[in-house]
Amino acid sequence: MKNLILIGIAYTLFVSCKKKTAEDTSIHTLVFTKTTGYRHESIDAGKTMFRNKATDWNLTLTETEDAGTFTVDNLKNYKIIVLLNSSGELFTDPQRAALQSFVRNGGRVLGIHAAADAEYNWSWYPQMLGGWFYSHPEIQDAECYPVVTDHAATRNLPDRWKRKDEWYNIKSLQTNNVTVLAVDESTYTGGIHGGSHPISWYRSFEGGKIFYTAMGHTTETYSEPLFIEHIGGAIEWLKSE
User: Fold this and answer.
1) Would you say the pTM of this structure is higher than 0.70?
2) I want to staple 119 with a disulfide (CB 3.0 to 4.6 A). Which of 20, 125, 142, 238 is the partner?
3) Per the CATH hierarchy, to which homologous superfamily does domain 26-239 belong?
């Protein structure tokens, strides 16, 4: 009987350790979708994409539109913050300070599309994200191409990737952005950057890691296999040390 009890205790500890290990290796990720500016209909599709890929990408997701979750202590629970089409004025001064602390303590930020159409009264924000939204032409087809072909976000993309989106023009572009994907302005109308037009980039910033893509306006985007591959690669890079 004593041996059976010991075996039972050992098994319980084994199962508990397995569960703990699984929990500890999952990347806790905050998906933030607050809008006070234009609200994209594609937000729900974006959240669905993250839910569907959470297991493959090894993410534990928390979804919120409450900027009150941006406190120094609460953000310590997350490794990645996804700014999923969040737009307009998003944060109070203490919430801004919490995001700065998160980044400066090694946090990772993934900005998607309208994340660049936000916080125009906060000069630190485009320095962190890599730029601000300036303008866009009508939604149309265009061709993208990898600039950095060996990055996780581009290594599985074709040499020419034709797709439809709302192609953002960017202002306050930061000089140390590393463009991984560009859109060829000769394949659509309304670009202002002259030929090679940065559309996705990564950067290190104040101790943190940042990845931004200006793609992501349409609902259909979030079910496109190549876009999902692109975001999965961004997540892979953000998770890496």
Assistant:
1) yes
2) 125
3) Class I glutamine amidotransferase (GATase) domain (3.40.50.880)
